[in-house]
Specification:
With about 300 residues, the chain is of the alpha+beta class. It has 2 domains: about 140 residues, Diaminopimelate Epimerase, Chain A, domain 1; about 150 residues, Diaminopimelate Epimerase, Chain A, domain 1 (Roll), CATH 3.10.310. The chain has 6 helices and 18 strands. The chain has an 8-stranded mixed β-barrel. β1 and β2 form a beta hairpin. The radius of gyration is 19 Å and the shape is globular.
Length: about 300
């Protein structure tokens, strides 16, 4: 049985940058184990599988797999899948649309498409969950995860903190761009520290000179991803956390987050946040995506398949 796929680089406007993603378009009829095997074969940080929606009015049911496990939500898979799906639908003669709604394990993910003249070139998502602020860890534990001295971990704004908008990350502020450049994951520390606090990844960031500017890196060796080039779900949670800490009870902010630079996959993530009466009420993350490869997978048949496209 043949299944169509497209690979795309996400959170970039040029090929061989950003975060690679594989999108399997004809996923109905695949078993969970087959999807996991395909994701392991691609060996990208995530692979998505597009299925018909379960409810009328939604665009698609999307399942997301890392090389090891299925995850309930992730950022760059949604952006990349939306761009790939929109381009394919419009190439097949469907009328252009501006919005999608994806069904995912974490909930519904609304997506607004970004166009350059008429062509879809990017997307902006709203996470499926409100910001939640969870466990914190010591400076020593955060430093151990990043192979840095404790003196280079900053806790004046917030402690090293687990936050989530659908997928939890340990978010750590570091003292300088040089410290971020020198950071690297310590597998033993990750194994000891992260599972008990409900996550398997560390998102480290440093503030830029201008408000709303961050540089970041994300490490997830427990999930077979030594470093992720662009992590939309972690970025969304982090800018949500930082918005919640703003002294103003009412504020609207824009964000520009660079990631992947230190691993040769420069990525740009654009965010918007809004706080009203002291509560973060709106949170969006977006960026561009460019197609790279397309082809067919050869999968042993296990069921009749009805293509979504």
């Amino acid at each position: 049985m043949q299944r169509r796929y497209v690979t795309t680089d996400v959170f970039t406007d040029r090929v061989f940058g950003g975060n690679p993603l594989a999108v399997v378009l004809d996923a109905e009829g695949l078993t969970t184990s087959q999807m996991q095997a395909i994701a392991t074969e691609f060996n990208y940080s995530e692979t998505t599988f597009v299925l018909p929606p379960r409810q009328v009015g939604h665009t698609a049911h999307v399942r997301i797999f890392t090389p090891r496990v299925e995850v309930p939500f992730a950022g760059h898979p949604n952006i990349g899948t939306a761009v790939v799906l929109a381009q394919h639908l419009e190439a097949s003669g469907r009328a252009p649309v501006n919005r999608f709604v994806f069904e995912e394990t974490a909930g519904l993910v609304p997506i607004v498409l970004i166009r350059d003249t008429e062509r879809v070139v990017g997307a902006e998502l709203t996470p499926p969950e409100a910001l939640s602020i969870r466990s914190s860890v010591s400076l020593d534990d955060a430093a151990a995860c990043l192979s840095l001295p404790s003196s280079e971990i900053v806790d004046s704004n917030h402690p090293p903190q687990v936050v989530s908008v659908g997928l939890p990350f340990l978010v750590v502020e570091v003292a300088s761009r040089d410290a971020l450049r020198r950071a690297k994951p310590n597998l033993a520390a990750h194994e000891r520290i992260l599972p008990p606090i409900g996550t398997d990844a560390v998102f480290a960031y440093v503030r830029g000179e201008a408000t709303g500017r961050l540089s970041a890196r994300c490490f997830a060796p427990l999930d077979a991803c030594l470093e992720d080039p662009a992590t939309g779900s972690a970025t969304a949670a982090t800018i949500g956390l930082l918005t919640s800490l703003q002294p103003d009870r009412n504020v609207e902010l824009t964000w520009r987050v660079e990631q992947g630079v230190d691993m040769g996959r420069p990525s740009l993530l654009l965010g918007r946040t809004e706080k009203r009466d002291g509560v973060v009420v709106a949170l969006h993350i977006g960026g561009h995506a460019v197609p790279v490869m397309r082809g067919t997978l050869h999968v042993p048949p296990n069921a009749m398949v009805r293509a979504l496209l």
